[in-house]
What we know:
The protein has 12 helices and 25 strands. The chain has 436 residues and is α+β, with helices and mostly antiparallel strands.
Amino acid sequence: AAIDFTADRTLYAQDLYAGADENHRVLIRVVTQRAWQSLFARQLFVRPPTESLPTHQPEFFVLCLPDVKASPELHGTRSETAIVLDLERKIILICGTEYAGEIKKSIFTTLNYLLPAAGVMPMHCSANVGAAGDTALFFGLSGTGKTTLSADPTRRLIGDDEHGWSDTGVFNFEGGSYAKCINLTSANEPQIWDAVKFGTVLENVAMNSVTGVLDFASDAITENTRAAYPLDHIPSAIIPSVGGHPDTIFFLTCDAFGVLPPISRLTPAQAMYHFLSGYTAKVAGTEAGVTEPQTTFSACFGAPFLPRHPSVYAKLLGEKLERHRSATWLVNTGWSGGPPGVGARMSIDYTRRIIQAALQGHLDSSEYRTHPVFGLSVPLECPGVPKSVLWPSDAWANPGEYAEAALDLARRFADNFRQFEQGASAVITAARPVLD
């Protein structure tokens, strides 16, 4: 039906790369029904030099047809939308949706299948490099701050969403950024603000039809407003987008319960535990039907895009942490002092100072305290951040209520992790929260 639909229609094609590392890149051809989706693909993937296009032989073929609808009765789908990957025939069909993010995520899923066999760890993370050449990774689900925190004017950007970690270092899967831009301001996110210019593809962003002025504060369509632009819209971006082995790794979580510390140092076993857990929380207004904070556990911070068992990716992480001794931190970009309506969202200014302190080694000399429930090592001092913010229960009006909330969240962690206990080592399992 999809092939029949394309007969006598104008379609738009782009020949591109997935992967900035020439040793691990995949050649793709993206064919779309909409011209703007073709531009999206061109902005998001790596663009080959013009002279190589005549000999471009795509390994994977992506066909995006929004007006083709799947039939749940005929095709066994859950709706009229379908994203179908045939990894043997190397064909990807996207139908029934205009959301261009499915183009990039289908290729991400493909790389998550292919690369582990080559010893490359595919990662849902952003990455940047400091002046001294030190590489940092930022893992996290949508809304936790991957793009915002990696767009640091004092560091050079490798990429904001999808990367591989090979025997030679880190490389971007993409050639662009797909930034969430709800409430985007020049003060809070100057690099992203400046990157939204001619050539950027905006999705779900409200615009005054007369003046052309964009309203980034509007969620009239959805909070998932997006801007897709090439990496060269960010002056400090590294092109080709590759870096060394990561010196520092951050696991970002938006804890809407106000339980987790703004930053805590992880042992390798704790890093494996929290990587497999992939915790964040949804808050009211982010999705239809969400009226209060809800826990979300997404293995390896990207479960929907993992065609292999999560243990495959966790094993790769463990091996690379052991080999390269990367410092690993858990960072809460969510709430402090209680859930929404009681506490407050963590200050982005404080979070940036905390990240900088970790990257520059300022937390190494701090006194640490062990969290009684989660066993996390929490620094009690950080330049420019009040001590009352760093130890989470101090930000609560009632310490007893904090203790109850911490135990409740710990139980949710334990319930989720039962699916991994049989395959996880005793060392990783021992890194779980204390429930008694």
